[in-house]
Design brief:
heterodimer, A: 111 residues, mainly beta, six-stranded mixed beta sheet, five-stranded antiparallel beta sheet, globular, B: 113 residues, seven-stranded mixed beta sheet, four-stranded antiparallel beta sheet
């Protein structure tokens, strides 16, 4: 069967670093994407890994290990506005639109 | 702002009715997908259209159907609405040939009563 597992909730202090893990089991795999979604908002693309290793985009980094079916999103220098839900999503086909999402991690940043 | 717009933003329908949701994607995007997001859950893939033809489908019954038009707009149609169809419906567009990330609209909140 298909599954993506993420922690349901994470709390971290403003200015700190937080890591959100994702393990996956899917029928097809072209890469792992990360999306941020604020309450009432649209999912916003953060990062994508097609190959093993670390991708860095400003304060956000994402890592993938295909052999371990595992990835993580690293958020540095946390800000209050980073409080949101974070989803890992497996790209199951060519093109970015065939995404299988996890249930999401609710990140709360506290002062 | 992603350039992907959806209408309406909110909608209330009665069980058994039919509904059409609309999405307008960016110029240059040739693929659009629709997702259903229940409260507290991740988006669930309904189907994808590429160059006006269905090109992949998730685990949704045939009463969920769609269309993609040459002017980058698309529709999601749901027949015989059920209470469990109440959810946020998101469309996402991209360019499959350039393998871009998916850009999501703000969604339509559908409530079935």
């Amino acid at each position: 069967g298909q599954s993506l597992e993420q922690p349901s909730e994470v709390t971290a202090v403003e200015g700190a670093i937080v890591q959100i893990n994702c393990t996956y089991q899917t029928s097809g795999f072209y890469g792992l994407s990360w999306y941020q979604q604020h309450d009432g908002g649209a999912p916003t693309f953060l990062s994508y890994n097609a190959l093993d290793g670390l991708e860095e985009t400003g304060r956000f980094s994402s890592f993938l290990s295909r052999s371990d079916s595992y990835g993580y999103l690293l958020l540095q220098e946390l800000q209050m506005k980073d409080s949101a839900s974070y989803f890992c999503a497996v790209r199951e086909g060519t093109g970015a639109n065939n995404l299988f999402f996890g249930t999401g991690t609710r990140l709360t940043v506290i002062p | 702002e992603t350039g992907v717009t959806q209408s309406p933003t909110h909608l209330i329908k009665t069980r058994g009715q039919q509904v059409t949701l609309r999405c307008s994607s960016q110029s240059g995007h040739n693929t659009v997908s629709w997702y259903q997001q229940a409260l507290g859950q991740g988006p669930q893939f309904i189907f994808q259209y590429y160059r006006e033809e269905e090109n992949g489908r998730g685990n949704f019954p045939p009463r969920f159907s769609g269309l993609q038009f040459p002017n980058y707009s698309s529709e999601l149609n749901v027949n015989a609405l059920e209470l469990d169809d109440s959810a946020l419906y998101l469309c996402a567009s991209g360019n499959r040939d350039r393998n871009t990330e998916a850009f999501f609209g703000q969604g339509t909140r559908l409530t079935v009563v």
